Amino acid sequence: NGWQATVLTIYPGMFPGPLGHALAGRALEAGRWRLDVIDIRAFATDRHRSVDDTPAGGGPGMVMKPDVVAAAIDAAAAGGIDRPRLLLTPRGRPLTQARVRELVEGPGAVLVCGRFEGVDERVVEARALEEVSIGDFVLSGGEIAAMVLLDACVRLLPGVMGAQASGSEESFENGLLEYPHYTRPQVWEGRPIPEVLVSGDHGRIARWRRAEAERITRERRPDLWAARAGGRIDNSQGFK
Ligand code: ADE
């Protein structure tokens, strides 16, 4: 019943955090998705409740212990239906809207939040963790990254976005950044709304928006623009 997220973290108090508010929070209350939070520390075995240890081979920082992380993952998986197991880490494959859409099609996800220098590589292998990054920058841990991923998923769940066009015109759904938006007043600080948008000519408006979306994508995201150009040859991402 509903899309199920299980988050494994050593900071369970961080959840639901922002996910308890706005769109995601209302969807949570409405039962359109479910959030279970598991405290990894509850699976520590020594008397100090250790979740990390010094890195083999030396070097700075600490590494999350494979036995403790695996026990937490196994508890999350126990009894339930099989879900993708993701590890949030800056070393992961970049998260994409395409992967978000796939996750939303499935039963949910188990999200492991990395801390310290990382997680023992053996648990990544043994529990087939899919390593995912939310961008080329380093956060202090995977918790906020997990929230980002969940927010991206939850808004796409059936019934969550309500009246809003659920995505087809949005950035990335068509491989383009969005066109610029305007609302009243007609003139603000001496700046008028572009004339075309108040022309009432829906064909012209659609063409203007498309041209603006293409210009902005070319300027800001040459990588996305090149992928689209490539897409005309292979179109593996199915852009419109
Ligand atoms: N943990 C730390 N930095 C991260 C990132 N960029 N993406 C996912 N998890 C992270």
Give an account of the 3D structure.
This protein is α/β, with parallel strands linked by helices. The chain folds into 2 domains: 3-154, SPOUT methyltransferase, trefoil knot domain (Alpha/beta knot, 3-Layer(aba) Sandwich), CATH 3.40.1280; 167-240, Orthogonal Bundle (Trp Operon Repressor, Chain A). Helix content is 32%, strand content 18%. It has 7 helices and 10 strands. The strands form 3 sheets. Strands 2-1-6-5-8 form a 5-stranded parallel beta sheet, with helices on both faces. The protein has a 3-stranded mixed beta sheet with strand order 3-4-7. Bound molecules: adenine. Keywords: Cytoplasm, Methyltransferase, S-adenosyl-L-methionine, Transferase, tRNA processing. It catalyses: guanosine(37) in tRNA + S-adenosyl-L-methionine = N(1)-methylguanosine(37) in tRNA + S-adenosyl-L-homocysteine + H(+). Homodimer.
Order of helices and strands: EHEEEHEHEEHEHEEHH
Distinct small molecules bound, one entry per kind: adenine
CATH class of the largest domain: Alpha Beta
Distance between the amino and carboxyl termini: 33 Å
What is the average of the pLDDT values?
93
Q: What key phrases describe this protein's structure?
A:
S-adenosyl-L-methionine; tRNA_m1G_MeTrfase_TrmD; five-stranded parallel β-sheet; Trp Operon Repressor, Chain A; tRNA_m1G_MTases_N; alpha/beta; three-stranded mixed β-sheet; Alpha/beta knot; 10 strands; Alpha/beta_knot_MTases; binds adenine; single chain; elongated; 240 residues; tRNA processing; 32% helix
